[in-house]
Amino acid sequence: MIFALVNQKGGVGKTTSTVNLGGGLHRMGHKVLIMEVDPQSHVAKWFGFRNPQHGTIYDVMDAQLKAGNTGGEAMPLANVLVETSEGLWLAPGSRDLAGLEGDLRNDSINGQFILSEVLAPYASEFDIILIDCGPTLNLLTINALVAADFVAIPVKMSELDMDGVGEVLKTVSKVKAKLNPALEVAGIFPTFTDNTRYGDEVEKAAAEQSAIKEHMMQSFIPDRVVYREAVGVKVSIFGMGRNKAVREAADYYLDLAAELLWRTGRFSKAEIARMVKAARINAPTSNDAAEVAYARS
User: Fold this and answer.
1) Residue partners of 274: CB distance under 8 A and separation at least 6
2) What burial letters (b/e) apply to 126-160, b meaning 16+ CB within 10 Å?
3) Which of 47, 60, 135, 232 could join 10 in a cystine, given CB atoms 3.0 to 4.6 angstroms apart?
4) Looking at domain 2-293, what is its CATH homologous superfamily?
5) pTM to 2 decimals?
6) In 3D, which of 65, 58, 95, 104 has the Cα closest to residue 80?
């Protein structure tokens, strides 16, 4: 299954959610690939791959585009895959992706299908592929939507951010109608939630918008310092040891992962319950680097 994490707004927690969903799904027993089509390449930086030696997803997509246009040789995705210390697989992004946008636009026939072509040989190699998209509905994001089975939309609970979700849903509908009829919205999940009155009012407003209400998930991600601290030790929240604050923060992403899987219609509740139980059993009892970085009295 391929999930694209999409929102045209920045700062809504796409990268944080991609990384931590990947960590949670891996703990649940899935072989996970995280791919980023964002020139900011924050996932690669999160895991410490600032200058990947064997190339990035840009190199693979660029070679695929040229192969289709000039008959050149395509580059296998496997050439650029790297494994993190947690056992997640990563196809890192790069700032060069910004320059690829124009090339994709110039190819009016194949430009929207390049990522699908790249991923096709690997659909059965990974249980779940998560695509971290940039904060724009450009052709890189369209490529992700064309390649994906499902869309997951993180949204910050503010009025302006929720207005942007409507644009994302319109884009998804257009892609589904014209390019990828199998595409479905897995859900919209709130991030950076709080219990202030303003937050409650915004959540109520979202529930009253039919397009958003239809896809709004029960799971949510609160604002927690530990999510940001995980970046410092180059792991997801599931690699941060087992103190109480980390366990609680990780549980929010386990809940989110479980609900996303349920919404795909491909797993029973009993299967998902077993996965969640396995994730808690498989969680590390300690991570020395993480424990040093996140020492609490």
Assistant:
1) none
2) bebbbbbbbbbbbbbbbbbbbbbbbbbbbbbbeee
3) 135
4) P-loop containing nucleotide triphosphate hydrolases (3.40.50.300)
5) 0.90
6) 58
